[in-house]
Amino acid sequence: MDTSTQSREHDLFYEQLIRSYVNAPYFVERPALTHQVTTKLKEAPCRFLLITGEPGTGKTAFMAWLAGCNPKWARYFVRRDQISPLGPAGARSFLMTAGFQLAARYPSAFSQDEVEISIRQRLTRGGKGSLVGAEIGRLVSSPFRRVTLDIMQEVEQTEGMVRGLKVHEWITDPRLIPYDDLQHMALYDPADALTRTHPNELAVILIDALDEQIGQPHEGSILQWLENAPELPGNVRIVLASRPADTALATFRARQEPWLSELTISPDAESVRRDVRQMAEKFAEQAYIVEALVEHDLEPNAFVEAVVGKAMGNFQYLNAVLREIDRSLAAGDTALVGRLLRAEEIPETLEELYAYFLRLVRNQLKGSGVQISAAVSEGIEFLPAWQGLYQPLLGILAVAKRELTLEQIRELGQIPVLYHWLSGARERLVQFLDPDYKALRLYHSTFPEFLTKSETRNTHSDCYLPPKEWHGTIATHILAAYGDDWESCDDYGLDSLVQHMLDAEMTDRLDTVFTDEFMNARLARTGWHMPFLDDLERVEARFSPEEMVDLYLAVVYGRGPNSLVMQRVTRRLLHLRPSLKKKRIDRPQGGHPRLDAQIDNALAALAPQTQVQEE
Questions:
Q1: Mean pLDDT, to the nearest integer, of 492-502?
Q2: pLDDT over 50 (residue 87)
Q3: What is the DSSP letter of 418?
Q4: 3-class state of residue 85 by DSSP
Q5: How confident is the model over 499-510, as pLDDT tens digits?
Q6: 268: left (phi > 0), else alpha (psi -120 to 50), else beta?
Q7: So what's the pLDDT on residue 378?
């Protein structure tokens, strides 16, 4: 396998993410939980296995372990910051990913129904009529199978028209394939084929962090698909991991109740406490930790008992403590190391622990300053270190859609300090950062959640970072810096601007973004229009149907809209028509008659019953 192919496969199968968990220094395999899962999957009624647990109970690490141990299993890790060619995390992205993974692992299941069209025509002499070898009304091309065309025409003389193949509608773009067709192409049809080629094998699909979909637009989500999915074939199992989220999962539980099994990861369970203890024991066995324990006159067992007692079955709590011990040892903070090893001062909940560590940073920074860059100030000026550097750095990372470099953070947050101050802040905040990225991102979703959720404002106001303000900071900078020159904007700005504007409630300025210039910059950077169309659909979840019609029409009446844009926008207009009731879809004043007709004809072809009525 060449390097490029290997890279694509690793990306498709989340290999880097999986390795980041299973190769972590103190990773615990959790055999008891693994046994429970494998036992449940063998039960005949089971089609869905829902694993629930509170934040920090190790659900993602466990799902990564299952994926690593079972390379044939498909896997999908939902992320808030997911930005990919397949679009944001949703049912279509999930089905596409699962379909490609299953096709890679079980190619025979996808090759049995390949589309082959073979046409042979021989015409020695023809008149003025037309000859068509084959005519197809609608052909939906599976992205997981080959379509082979073999057309041979021999025409000696004719005055008319000769066509080998005529297709009225040929859908090749996966994003335009209807869900009913896509779910059968990706899952149901190959599962049926597997019953013949691999009769004793289960096709298992892992979906981690289902709760990340909660609070997002329900239409098109994985959760909506799970609620409405037809009965799964008997050889398919879908394993889901989520926070409890009882209200949000109620419909799924009710509709799939005959096929649903559940497991709860309880922090009070003996097996969970045993796994947490094993993680602490692995840490205490490290030579440098043994040395530190001796220096502070502590027995390893005493440290393990103390820290496990505080963790109360929460892996992320324990992990946060161990990371801060490592950081304090590297920084030579002997006093703090002693307090952490004794676990006497640290609080007993994960959120209280985050607040405790943040206050340690603030207290250490009291009275210190950071120098303002000469590009901002002519003289030598300083800002308070926390307010001028650490707080904005955490604020930007708390709402960022993916990892960022220090330069990007400085630019997006308008942090006016010299670069070496940023580098120093990164080292001081290392316990909060994900070590598996060269760029910066916060470690574990529970930490940015703590920083930005409204409850923190009430319980730990000194730690609270208002998310709307930081989304606005990022969006305002991107608009000011690149609004007149989108081609010079970096990938992060182009990919994330619309979502930051929505999160900042800056909807009144979206019309300045959805322009030909922005669309063409997205096209030039990604090679297709789908990311731009994804942006439009994000907005549709927040706008009224009337506002969206105006926005869609502004796009298609722009300079030379792409045919794919026209097709997608026309479908969205059709989707919006029922919400408009009898209101017509108004054309811009001085519009283009040919484009008017094109839109009306397309709408009529897609759904004749909703043909546009002009006043």
A1: 95
A2: no
A3: -
A4: coil
A5: 999 999 999 999
A6: alpha
A7: 61
CB 111 within 8 A of CB 85: no
Side chain identity at 229, as an amino acid letter?
A
CB atoms within 10 A of CB 100: 21
* Residue 217 CA from chain centroid, whole number: 14
Q: What does the block give as tokens for 506? A: 């800056």
Half-sphere exposure of 115 (CA within 13 A, CB side): 14
Q: What is the pLDDT of residue 593?
A: 62
Least confident of 50-59, 288-297, 441-450, 586-595: 586-595
Number of residues assigned to the chain: 615
Instruction: Categorize the per-residue pLDDT at 319 as very low, low, confident or very high, splitting at 50, 70 and 90.
Output: very high
Quickly list DSSP for 487-548: GGS-HHHHHHHHHHHHHTT-GGGGGGTSSHHHHHHHHHHHSSSHHHHHHHHHHHTTS-HHHH
Cα first-last separation, the chain = 62
Tell me the per-residue pLDDT of 467-485, one tens digit each, with 9 for 90 and over. Answer: 999 999 999 999 999 999 9
- Which one-letter DSSP state was computed for residue 257? G
Reduced 3-state DSSP string for 204-252: EEEEECHHHHCCCCCCCCHHHHHHHCCCCCCCEEEEEEECCCCCCCHHH
- DSSP assignment of 298-322: --HHHHHHHHHHHHTT-HHHHHHHH
Report which of residues 38 and 136 the model is more confident about: 38
Distance (Å) of CA 134 to CA 119, 120, 137, 172, 361: 7, 10, 10, 19, 73
For the chain, helix, strand, coil in percent to 5 are 55, 15, 30
Work out the average pLDDT over 587-608: 59
d(CA 288, CA 488): 48
Q: pLDDT of 244-276, one tens digit each?
A: 988 999 999 999 999 999 999 999 999 999 999
DSSP 89: S
How many DSSP H helices and E strands does the chain contain?
29, 11
Q: What residues contact 216, with CB distance under 8 A and at least 6 apart?
A: none
Give the separation between CA 475 and CA 497, rounded to whole angstroms: 6
